[in-house]
Every structure is written in C-alpha cells, then in structure tokens.
Amino acid sequence: MGSSPVPDGAARRIAQIRLCRRTKSYLRISAGAWRTKKKPPRADHGMVFPGVQKSTWSYDQEAKAWYFHRFYDFQPDLNTSHPEVQAEILKIMGFWIQLGVSGFRMDAVPFVIATKGPKVGKPKEQYDMLRFFREFLQWRQGDCIVLAEANVLPETDLEYFGADGDRMHMMFNFQVNQNLFYALASADARPLIQAMKATKPRPATAQWGMFLRNHDELDLGRLSERQRQQVFAAFAPDPEMQLYERGIRRRLAPMFDGDRRRLELAYSLMFTLPGTPVLRYGDELGMGDDLKLPERDCARTPMQWSNEPHGGFTKSDKPQIPVISSGPYGFEHINAAIQRRHPDSQLNWTERIIRMRKEVPEVGWGNFTVIPSRDPAVLVMRYDWRNNWVLFVHNLDAKPREVTFSVGLEKEHAEQGRLLVNLLGEEHSRADKNGKHRLVIEAYGYRWFRVGGLDYLLRRSDIDQPAS
Question: Catalytic one among 125, 149, 157, 283?
C-alpha cells in the first residue's frame, strides 16, 4: 500500500502555490486556502501539534499572502473541494495503481474532506468526496483498497464507511486502540469492552484495522484526563516520552520495558480483536526508540535487518535518520537475522501467532460476544461463524487470576461448549457438570481455544445442509 497524495507529501506545494499566485489562475489560486490582507482570526486555534505548532496560518513573502496549513507550515492544505483539485488527486492515485500498489493509506481523512478557507468558521465534512475517490479506485482496479486514518467518535464511523459500505474500505480503530492501552495500564477491560461494542456497527463489506502502534504518536486524546494520566504513568512517565499534550512517542517494546509476557499479551489481544490486525515494522522484533530524536522521529528509526553497519538498512554513510546503535535495543542485539535463528525469539513467536490467526477465520468474519468473567482484569470473548466458535481469554493483571465461565452457546450446540481445545498449548478445558469452565490464568497470560474440538471443518454450516 502507498500513502495517499493528501495530506502527505505536501512539502513541495509551497513552490507550486507561489507559482499559482503569480499566474492568477482561478484553478491554481483555489488549490490552496489563501488570505491576502491580514492574518485570519483564530489562526492560533485547531493546531494538530500543540506545543510545537504555533499557528495554522503562515505568511509567504513571495506570494505576499497568508496560507492555511492544518499541520506544519511546510504542508499547506489543498482546497480539496475544488473539482479540478480532486481530479488531480485521482490522477496521482491512478499513476501509483498503474505502478502496482494494492491500495492507499489515507492520512487525516477528516481534514482532507473538510471545507477550508479564511471565511470558513466551522469546517464541514464532505463525506461524498470519499465515495468519489472509492468509485475511481473500484473502476481502475477492483481489489484496490483505502485504509483510512480517522480518529473520530463512534457515532460518525458510518459516515466514513458509508451506510452501504461505499466509501472507505477500512479504518484504523482509534477508539479501541486508546482503550486497549488503558486496559493494559489499569488491568481493567471494561472500557475496552465498551469501545468494541461502540464500534461494532459497520457495513458487511467494511472492516476495522486493529493496531497497537503506528508511525505517529500513540494518541490518547479520546481518553479522560484521569485515564490518560494513568496510561502516561504506566508507559511514558517522563515528559520527554510524551508528545503534543495527548500522546506517547515511544515504540511498543520500551513501553513494556522489553517484558516478553506483556508484549505477547498485547499482541494476543490485537490479533483477537474484531477486525484486521495491522502490524508496524520492527515491532515483530521488539525494536526500541531513540528519545534524542525530535518529536515522532524517535520511533521512526530504520528497520534493523542485521548486525551489519546501519542495521543492514542502507549502505549510505549519511542516513537521514540514524539506526539505534547502543543500549539493549541496539541493532547489534535486536535484528531480524539474529531472531530468525532462535526458535523462541519474538520474531518467531510473531510468525507462529500470525499463522494461528489465519486458522481462526471466525475473528475476521464472525460476530463477537463478551463472556461475563466477573473479574474486570480478565477478558473472555467468543466468536461465532458458520456454526463454529473460538474463544479467547486474556489476563491483564500482573497476578494470576482464576476465572469461571460458561461458553454460552445456544441449546442445540451446548454439548460442543463443554470442550475447549487449546490452540497454543496442551492445556485443554472440560466443563463441569454445570457446564462451567474453571481456568487459572498466569500473570499477563492468554489462551486461544477452539470450542468443541478440531473437527470444525466438518461442521461448516454450508455443508451441513442436507442435499435436495
């Protein structure tokens, strides 16, 4: 997948917009949001990067005008409402499709589709623009997808997916992501359960992207102040680890102090959440961060392939961002080549869990049910699809937990619910005479079960029907 042409890649627009101002072309002037006389009011509102960004409007000496930039001043916004600007965006997408990309990650979608300009007080989202992009991609390449980054409230999710699934194919689930980290920090799964239920409605042809870390800071802006401070205390206690008054700029492994138990728990949760797992490069190795680098760059260091110079990432003597070369996360110790040779490495564990995730299609295709565990630190979830079921148990606490539960299948399938086959180990579970399973889960432990045994392929609903 590639990155969409808006808003990424905007650094070169300054020169283009200066040219546009000189030519006085209506189209080109409309390509940016401009104000010629004076700095607009409220120019110090709506900054995406508080503490770093001072304004959303900057003055260009050559163009002799103020221009709008939701992000940094070298990323001027385009007036995406203009039809010919939209046409140019489609041309760029078409170019990359022709070169072979399978889809696009569209950054900051709410800002892309918002109205812009000096006279715009409250921006309005133009959701039909998403359908316009989608239709173009479907005609050009039917299996091309758009993965949207839209950190919005659950009640607006369907506006981005489209009620009929005709807008964005996939969206990163920020609501679940933020509550997932709160659950890991507090050993309380209840807010995570609420977030999953709040984001459950979606078109059948759309899907959530479930993730732990992405290329930006870990945004905690949707949590309450109390929750956010609890996550900071657990994973980013020093101010230099925090960013933009709302997020954490660390990689995943340092957030957990390199503790494999906690890392495996976090990834087991991600792979069993209702959606498509999205894994960030280097996290399969447990790569670290370099807090000496500014802002988000600390977690954007090069991939550590081997113990060759620069981690095998480049032959250049002057890389733009240096590889981590010292400490416990240095490339000499953490790299793909070393971990491939060790069966118990994090890389090989991740490969095994990905293979097992492919053997439980119920997670991607089925419906989930949260099973009452009577313990906020223990999350029990069941997925149902085509008369097959899988069940997952996660202990969020640093102490072992005992949990008793019923699988909760309908009466005609209750017998299958008496047996839980462990997919990751030898510890299977049989229900007692009351149909209850009793498990003791170790600190930060997890279990993946198939309900009713391993003959599930013979019980698929589409082959259960008698021949006519």
Answer: 149
Q: Work out the mean pLDDT of the chain and round it to a whole number.
A: 89
Our answer to whether residue 283 is catalytic in this structure is no
Residue 456: count of CB within 10 angstroms of its CB: 21
**Number of domains forming the structure of the chain:** 3
Q: Which segments in the chain show pLDDT lower than 50?
A: 10-12, 14-15, 19, 23-29, 463-464, 466-468
pTM reported for the whole predicted model = 0.89
Last residue of a domain, one of 302, 325, 358: 358
Clarify whether residues 334 and 404 are in a common domain.
no
C-alpha 321/C-alpha 85 separation (Å) is 33
CATH number for the domain including 279? 3.20.20.80
Catalytic residue among 8, 44, 73, 107: 107
Which domain covers residue 434, as residue numbers? 366-463
Q: Could you confirm whether 107 is annotated as catalytic? A: yes
Q: Where among 341, 358, 375 does a domain terminate?
A: 358
Residue range 392-412, pLDDT digits in tens: 999 999 999 999 999 999 999
Sorted by sequence, the CB contacts under 8 Å of residue 316 that are 6+ apart come out as 310
- CA atoms lying within 13 Å on the CB side of residue 256: 21
